[in-house]
Design goal:
By secondary structure, the chain is of the alpha+beta class. The protein has helices spanning 85-99, 102-111; strands at 9-10, 14-19, 22-31, 35-39, 49-55, 61-72, 75-83. A six-stranded antiparallel barrel has the order 2-3-4-7-6-5.
Length: 117
């Protein structure tokens, strides 16, 4: 059984990914406070830094820096390395709304405090 340290929730949004000088788009498969999975056919080497913007609504975007940590045929998983306070609040609200366990999300929030800038 695969044990996760952070609550993962499904999210039907799209995102842009900037890798070196390339920008491409993909659909979000799922998200947690620690990372996300983006469905795409584009290739990105493992463990390279990327800049991601998740387009959550017309007025809200989540901007983050991450590293590619997993590759599958349908896309890639990324671990969040850094995000600003506003983006973290939006991300936390998305996960909390779908999780319904306030105490669990608070514990996960404290674990991510070093990534928020």
């Amino acid at each position: 059984m695969n044990k996760r340290d952070f609550t993962r929730v499904d999210l039907s949004e799209w995102a842009s990914v900037k890798y070196e000088e390339q920008i491409f788009f993909g659909d979000i498969g799922n998200v947690s406070l620690q990372g996300l999975f983006i469905k795409t056919e584009h290739e990105i080497p493992m463990y390279v830094p990327v800049e991601v913007t998740v387009y959550h609504s017309a007025a809200t975007s989540i901007h983050l820096s991450a590293n590619v940590v997993r590759r599958e045929d349908s896309g890639f998983g990324m671990q969040i390395k850094e995000l600003d306070v506003n983006s973290f609040v939006h991300l936390r609200n998305v996960v909390a709304k779908k999780c319904h366990d306030h105490e669990l999300i608070m514990r996960e929030t404290y674990k991510m405090a070093n990534c928020i800038h």
